[in-house]
Amino acid sequence: MKKIGVIISMFPEIHETFIVRELAELERQNFAFDIYSLQKPRDPVTLEEAQKLMKERTHYATLFGLMQWWAFFKCFILHPIRMLKLMTEIMWVGKDRPMESLKSLAILPITCFFSESMKSEGITHVHGHWANVPTTACWAMKRLFGFSWSAAIHGEDIFSPNLFLEHKLKEAAFTVVCTGYFCSHLKCNMNHTHPQDIHLNYHGLSPKIYERIAKLDNTTTQKKNTDAPFEILSIGRLVPTKGHDLLIQAVAILIKEGRSVRLSLIGSGPDEAKLKNLVTILENTENLALSQHIQFLGMRSFHEVMDAFERTDCFALACHMIAGEPPDGIPNVIAEAMALGVPIVSTRMGAIPELVEHEKTGLLAEPNDVPSLVNVLGTLISDSELRQTITIEARNKVLSMFDQKKNVSDLIALFKRYVGG
Question: Where are the beta strands (DSSP E) in 248-351?
């Protein structure tokens, strides 16, 4: 089929490696595409796949470059009514989100410049990652130059009122969404005019996970000393929605009950001082040496994270809802832990139950419920047979559900169906 243009706010973005993996697999399957990044990367790029895609397939432009503004001026002269109507719609329909509307206006010169570049390459379809500015660029290309377009939604902006997003998506040929929970919400709660064109398309696991699985399967591991503490690992940004405070409280209760447990937290974030203070408060009020059982490890490399998965007895993430914050999708760390044979404890929250089925592929507590979390952690600590059963089921499920090659093949099939050969 013809080459398509993939529009991304910033490529690569350090927290969006799932997009890099998807694009690398598209390339492996000989799919024709170029990447159009609205910003240059902020951080040093270390992933080889990302470096290759940057060098061979990625186009960049600056917000205030002369070429971009010349492209905008030409478009305004050639299509003044289209441009004025487009700008009016952005401000009027998006008036509930004025800052986002201003960003949408600001990227119009880059949008016009990229459109000229794409037309010279024979590109007539564009695909935008995320619900905000990239989909605005795609929508504007349709309005100004007649491109067809599609969207990849990864959560975020669909869980709060977003009239401009609803307005844009009505004109998308199709939309892919990364979890069934998000997909259902988009179909049922956002006034979509053609919900049959919204499709579920999961992400894929990192190739490094498969390398580590092969290593584990070919290594004879020694049985852990049964007198050692039960190791609980949690990984995620230290923010309220991840529920690290609930997990700390649950561990304190388990220790008070006489359980030998140790919690390791990997990650950084604005709540770090608050969480460390919580440990101190619980130490003083409960008369527990809690700081000896809970360690904050800060940020760690992906290799160090996989090493931590191998050492732990359980992975726990107590996600819950915070007013004004979007719910979690399926955190990558849960999928990675399951693939590496680590028993999972999480919550019935967002899209997590799609992957973690209670007492089948993991254990689920109620969100924002410390006693429920204590109960499921206690069950897992006590029942070694259950731990073994759920890890086998969990690995089978996650390897099937997050099969990168299959999921990208499904995505290519959607492009062929909607864009043509």
Answer: 261-266, 294-298, 314-316, 344-347
Tell me: do 328 and 356 sit in the same domain.
yes
Q: Are residues 167 and 288 in the same domain?
A: no
Return the pLDDT at 220.
54
DSSP 175: E
Q: What pLDDT was estimated at residue 156?
A: 65
Instruction: Check: CB of residue 204 under 8 Å from CB of residue 22.
Output: yes
- Read off φ and ψ for residue 107, nearest 5 degrees: -90, 0
pLDDT along the chain (421 residues), means of 10: 94 89 96 96 89 97 92 96 97 92 95 97 96 95 97 82 91 96 92 94 93 82 69 95 96 95 96 96 89 94 93 96 79 95 96 96 97 98 95 96 96 95 60
**SS3 state of residue 127:** strand
If asked whether residues 408 and 396 sit together in one domain, one would say no
Say which DSSP state 358 is in. B
**Could you give the CA distance from residue 140 to residue 161 in angstroms, rounded to a whole number?**
21
**The token pair that represents 363 in the structure block:** 């254990």
Give the range of the structural domain holding residue 353, as residue numbers without chain letter: 207-401
Same domain, residue pair 193 and 214? no
| CA 172 to chain centroid | 22
What are the residues facing 344 on neighbouring strands? Answer: 315
Q: What is the 3-state secondary structure (H, E, C) of 255-291?
A: HHCCCCEEEEEECCCCCHHHHHHHHHHHHHHHCCCHH
Judgement on whether residues 86 and 228 belong to the same structural domain of the protein:
no
